Amino acid sequence: MAKIGITTTIPAEIVFAAGHTPVDLNNILISHPEAVRLTEAAEEAGYPRNICGWIKGLYSVVVQGGDIDTVIAVTQGDCSNTHALMETYELAGVRTIPFAYPFDRDYDLLKLQMEKLMASLGTGWDAVNAAKRRLDGVRAKVAEIDRLTWREGTVSGWHNHLYQVSCSDFNGDVDVFEQEADAFLAAAGSAAEYSEDVRLGFIGVPPILTDLYEYVERMGARIVYNEVQRQFAMPFATDDIVEQYRLYTYPYGVFGRIEDIRREIERRNIDGIIHYVQSFCFRQIEDMIFREKLDVPILTVEGDKPGKVDARTRLRLDSFLEMLR
User: Fold this and answer.
1) pLDDT single digits (tens) 69-79
2) Nearest alpha-carbon partner for 29 in 310, 305, 228
3) pLDDT tens digit string along 162-181?
4) Backbone angles phi, psi at 92, to 5 degrees
């Protein structure tokens, strides 16, 4: 069993079916006690300062970690800097396997990509479909955590984020992750209801800021919708794994994401949206589209390196919440 690094969500079912352990490098970085040092180490190695902090951190997590010798890198549908990240991995002697989401959601092209990944890892459809059935049961439990967040009001925005974002790799151990989800559900089912006066949605990539959810709730609001994290959790009712990854909105065009966001804004009775953008990321351009197409107030928050929300952003969040009230 090998540890297989992933740069974003890929069909984890294939990695588990091959008997390996997926490791979401983003989750390793953001939970690392020296996350800032890891991003700075990439700059010392030669990465430009004006490159996304996630990319720099992902480089150091693998090169300095030493226990991951293969990385599945998404070359289409995620970050445009991943191509160069792969090349620097290879320069450091790390094996890389490319995976590409077809921009137009073409079923046959996506199926071909999945079959190429299966061939690279040495597995086939029977094992992959069995892994899908196993993960579907766990995904359903995470979907219940999401429902308790927005409908029953007994789950914090942070825990909603945490359980959904962890579905990219199930923390490398499906059985342990499921046990943790079961225990959390048991506690959340009888927990006291939150009494926030502002309900927020969070769209964009998961934040590199470590205390954003905590700060929002301290100010009397709560995030009841995490867009991309929910997509990582894939609460889709389909027995077809190729269709499952076609329904996943994040790697395709922004307008599919907007349809999903609109539905959830209405269903969850959301007052305003925080659009998180990462410094030096091409997805910042999409902010102008969200502002044109979404009918609720939007606050755009930008993050660079791992760390707490800075004073300027706290002030902007305070003003945004006051405006919504």
Assistant:
1) 899 999 988 88
2) 305
3) 999 999 999 999 999 999 99
4) -90, 5
DSSP element (H, E) containing 229: helix 227-233
Which residue in this structure is represented by tokens 């959904």?
164
298-303: strand order across its sheet = 221-226, 198-203, 272-278, 298-303
Quote the distance between the C-alpha of residue 98 and its chain's center: 19
Tokens of 203: 């769209």
Tokens 């959390």: give the residue. Answer: 184
Which of 28, 98, 83 lies closest to 60 in space, CA to CA?
28
Residue type, 209: L
Q: Does pTM top 0.90 for this prediction?
A: yes
DSSP at 104: T
Distance CA 121, CA 119 (A): 5
Question: How far apart are alpha carbons 276 and 301 in whole angstroms?
Answer: 5
**Three-state secondary structure along 163-218?**
HHHHHHCHHHCHHHHHHHHHHHHHHHCCCCCCCCCEEEEEECCCCCECCHHHHHHH
